[in-house]
Specification:
disordered N terminus; Farnesyl Diphosphate Synthase; mainly alpha; 74% helix; globular
Length: 298
């Protein structure tokens, strides 16, 4: 029996909508945008709510559009065959209409309430993800490197919505850390699901290097992510001792937890899954440090 033939309980409309729009991933992007907003304002105000709502709507629209674009490939992967479009819970036209509606609502909210800079940065994020990165994944195993701009944009959108200039070195330092982080984050996912990606027709670095060399390359990028965190106090993204200790502790914990990637023992799914969860938690702690810093300074 194939994966697609396994009977599963059909979710309700609300659950299918949340899955179509990848609310968990969209919410994570929105959380990093909060760091950019609060870092500029050095606190929170009513504008934070409209900023986060606008970014969340854009992210959900972009995610839904991505599922339309990759519906045929998703149907061939064990990790994604159960998504709403492969299972026929939405038509491509219906899902596209939902995606466009959400993205347009998010763009207009940012534009009308926070000005053109944040709105056009949001539009750039959607265009880069759906118009550049999504098709590039089908032809290059290295697509995530330029595609990681997606991880850097949400903090910049939050910063711009708060009134900051995008060329400010402070927000560029913060965005750079998330840019570097995105690469090992995705490669760990590839190491976990390489066979599924390849079956669907995506080129992977497991095919290019093998898992052991990919594990070492991923560890190198994890080291780069930890090292890039040193830019944050230098460019005054954060400066209180508790926030610095939280950031330093998170970076050290990530490095130590990733050391098994260099080991000679067999690399199995449990290791990649553990490091993948670690790097996600690191991003959460990094964002929390940036958000808490202004309040700790009072």
């Amino acid at each position: 029996m194939t994966a697609a033939a396994i009977p599963v309980r059909k979710p309700g409309l609300a659950a299918s909508l949340l899955e179509l729009t990848k609310l968990r991933i969209s919410g994570a992007s929105t959380f990093t945008a909060a760091a950019g907003y609060i870092a500029f304002r050095r606190g929170a105000d009513a504008g934070l709510a409209t900023t986060l709502l606008g970014i969340l709507l854009l992210a959900m629209g972009s995610s839904a559009l991505n599922e339309v674009q990759e519906r045929h490939l998703d149907a061939r992967m064990p990790r994604t065959w159960h998504r709403p479009l492969p299972r026929g819970e939405f038509t491509p036209a219906g899902a596209t209409a939902i995606a466009v509606g959400l993205a347009l609502a998010g763009f207009l909210l940012l534009y009308l309430v926070h000005g053109p800079a944040s709105a056009w940065l949001g539009a750039l994020a959607l265009a880069w993800y759906n118009g550049f990165y999504t098709p590039l994944k089908r032809v290059s195993a290295f697509a995530v490197v330029p595609g990681s701009l997606i991880g850097a944009l949400p903090p910049a959108i939050g910063w711009a919505a708060a009134g900051g200039a995008v060329k400010d070195p402070t927000v560029l330092a913060l965005a750079f850390v998330f840019f570097i982080w995105q690469v090992p984050h995705f490669w760990l996912l590839v190491a976990l699901h390489a066979e599924g990606y390849e079956e669907a027709g995506f080129p992977t670095l497991v095919k290019v290097f093998g898992r052991r060399r990919l594990a070492r390359l991923t560890f190198t990028w994890i080291c780069g992510t930890a090292a890039a965190c040193g830019l944050l106090p230098v460019f005054r993204v954060l400066g209180t001792l508790p926030a610095l200790l939280l950031l330093a502790g998170a970076a050290f914990w990530l490095l130590v937890g990733s050391l098994p990637l260099l080991g000679k023992a067999e690399l199995d799914a449990r290791l990649f899954r553990r490091v993948f969860m670690n790097i996600n938690l690191f991003a959460l702690l990094l964002t929390a440090a940036v958000i808490l810093d202004p309040f700790l300074a009072r």
